[in-house]
Amino acid sequence: MTTVAVKPATMAQAFGRALRDAMAEDPTVHVMGEDVGALGGVFRVTDGLVKEFGEDRVTDTPLAEAGILGTAVGMAMYGLRPVVEMQFDAFAYPAFEQLISHVARWRNRTRGAMPLPITVRVPYGGGIGGVEHHSDSSEAYYIATPGLHVVTPATVADAYGLLRAAIASDDPVVVLEPKRLYWSKDAWNPDEPQAVEPIGRAVVRRRGRSATLITYGPSVPVCLEAAEAARAEGWDLEVVDLRSLVPFDDETVSASVRRTGRAVVVHESGSFGGPGGEIAARVTERCFHHLEAPVLRVAGFDIPYPPPMLERHHLPGVDRILDAVARLQWEARS
Amino acid sequence: MTVMEQRGAYRPTPPPAWQPRTDPAPLLPDALPHRVLGTEAAAQVDPDLLRRLYAQLVRGRRYNTQATALTKQGRLAVYPSSTGQEACEVAAALVLEERDWLFPSYRDTLAAVARGLDPVQALTLLRGDWHTGYDPREHRVAPLCTPLATQLPHAVGLAHAARLKGDDVVALAMIGDGGTSEGDFHEALNFAAVWQAPVVFLVQNNGFAISVPLAKQTAAPSLAHKAVGYGMPGRLVDGNDAAAVHEVLGEAIAHARAGGGPTLVEAVTYRMEAHTNADDDKRYRDDADVEAWRAHDPIALLERELTGRGLIDEAGMAAAREDAEAMAADLRERMNQDPVLDPMDLFAHVYARPTTQLLEQEAMLRAELDAETRGHDDPEGATR
Ligand SMILES: Cc1ncc(C[n+]2csc(CCOP(=O)(O)OP(=O)(O)O)c2C)c(N)n1
Ligand SMILES: [Mg+2]
Q: Does the keyword Oxidoreductase apply (chain B) (predicted)?
C-alpha cells in the first residue's frame, strides 16, 4: 500500500470511521437511532454508513429512546452488537429506565450468563450555542450506574480508538461525545491501522511540575490552553485526560498528583454531585501526604444548563481555572 | 429486500389525492372474547392437546399453591401468584416451539416452568438468592422482568434480530393490564409494527394492577383495541379457556412466523389471589367478585370438557394430580434447603473484568468475612 498523506480529520469523522471499520469487520455490528440513515445523524457521524451497509444494519428507528435502547437489548440477546445513537444528551433521558434497570445490570442479573455488548453514543456538553435541552453534561448519571463503562475522548485519535474499544467490549459502554469537539481537527491518518485504546486508561496530555489539572472530554483543550497561559504566571501545569470515567484510572491520576502535589479537577458538569467530588475524594485518599493544598474543583454551576447567550459564564474557562490554581496555597510551600 | 422495503413507504401527498390509508376494520378485535371450551369448536381441537393442557393446568395450580405456602414458611421472599390465570401461563408455554423465546413478567414464573425451566431455578428471583437463576439461552426464557413493560422492547428487538438473521423464531412477550399504560408498552408495539417483527404480545387482563382496577388505566374499548393504532391486529380471548388461548396465540404465532408481523392478544382473566402474599386485597375488592370468578375456573372449564366428552377418565385425572403432587414435594424439599451463597459473587458479574475499584471493595468484604470467621472460631475475642 502506498503511504497516505496524513490529513487533518475531524472528531466526527473519526467516530464515523470507527463505526464503519467496526461494521466492516464484524457483521453483527448494527447502528440504530434517530436520523442515522440518509441524513447521517444530526452531527453527520453516521454519514455514508447506510449506503455502505444498508438499512437493516443502519436503521432509522421510530422516535422513542426507550424503544431504541430496549430493542437493542433484545438484539444483543440474540447475538448482535448494537451501537445506539442518542441524538442529544438530554434526549437520552427517556431511555434511562432501560439503561439503568436492564443494560447496566443484565450481566449481573443473569449471574454472568448473558453479557450485553451494547454501545450507547451520547453527544454531550455545551459550548455550541444550543438552546434548552441541547447542552447537558449528563455524565454524573452514567457514572453513578454500576455496570456501565463510561468513556469520553478529547482527541480525534481517541475518538476512533475509544469507540472501537467500546464496540468490541462485551460490556455496555456509554461513549460521551463532546459536541463542541466534533469539528476539532487533528493530523490523523484514518487509513493507518489504528491502535484500539484499552478502556480505562488515562493519559498525561501535558507534562508539568507545579500542579495537575484532572479533566476529560470538552474541558481537555481548555485545560491545555490554561496550562499554556499559566506559564506566564510561573506555573508549569500537568494535564491528565481521563478518557475513561468508568473504569477510573486511579494509578495514572495518583501518580501525577504525587509528582505535582496539587490538583484541580475541571469539568462542565455541575460541581455538587458531579464527578469532581468523587475524583477529589479519591485523590485525597490516595495522595494525602503528597498534597500541598486541598484538591479544588472548577465545574459548571449547579444550575440547569443556561441559555446560549449566557453559557460562557457557566462553562469552566481559562481564567476560572487559573484562579483555582492560584488558590492552591503556594505561599505555604516556601 | 430490507425490512422497510417490504412494508412500502408513506409519501406525503397533498389533497385531493392524500396518501391512501389502509382499512383498520380487519385489525379490530371481536366484540366478545374468543371461546372454545363448551362450544362446538372444542370438537376440532386435538384431544391430546386438551389432555396436555389439563395436566399442565393441574400442575400449575399446584405450583402456585406450593409457592404461596413457601412464602408463609419464609422460604420465598415474595410470590405473585398466577392462581386463576394458569390457562394463560400454560398455553403461552405450550404454544411455543423450542427455538422460540418467551419474555415473562414477574407474575409468569409458571409459564417459565411450564416451558421446561427447573422450578427452583425459576424461583431464584423470588427466593432472593440471586436475580435470574437460569441462563436465558438454555430454554430461551428471558429473565423474569419486574419493571413494568420493559421486557416488551426486548422481545421486539430479539424477534427483529432473528428475522434479520433469517431464523424462523418468534418471541412471545407477557404483560399485565396495568403495564399497558407504560410508555414501553407503546414503544414496543410501535417498533414491532414498524419493523413487522415476529412477536406476539400477550396481555393478561386480570382486572387489577395491585389495587387499581382497569377502568383507571384506560378509556379504550378494550386493551386489544390498542393494537389498531399501531397497525397490528388485536385479538380478544377468554383467558380462562386454555384451548382458546392456545388457539389464538397459535394463530398469532403462525402469522408472525410467516412474516405477517406482530399481534396483540388480550386474554380476559382474573387474579384469584391478592397481588402477592404481601398484599391485602380486602382493601379494594369484594369477596363476592372473587367468588363469581370461581365458577369460571380454568381447570374446571377444561375438566368439564374432557369428562363431558369422555376424553379423560378418573385414572387420567388422578395421574395429573399425582404428577402435580410429586412436583410440589420435590419443590418443597429442595426449597427447604438453604441456598449456597458466595458473597464474592457480588463482584464477579458486574463487568467482564472487575475494575480496580471493585477489586478493592471485594478485598474489603473478604477481610470482613475472614474476621467474622475468626470471631466465630474465637468467641472470646482473645486474639484481638
Ligand atoms: C415501572 C414500574 N412501576 C411500578 C411497579 C410496581 N408494580 C409492580 S406490579 C404492579 C401492578 C402491575 O399490574 P399489571 O400490569 O396489571 O400486572 P399484574 O400484577 O396484575 O399481573 C406495580 C404497580 C413496577 N414493578 N414497575
Ligand atoms: Mg393486572
A: yes
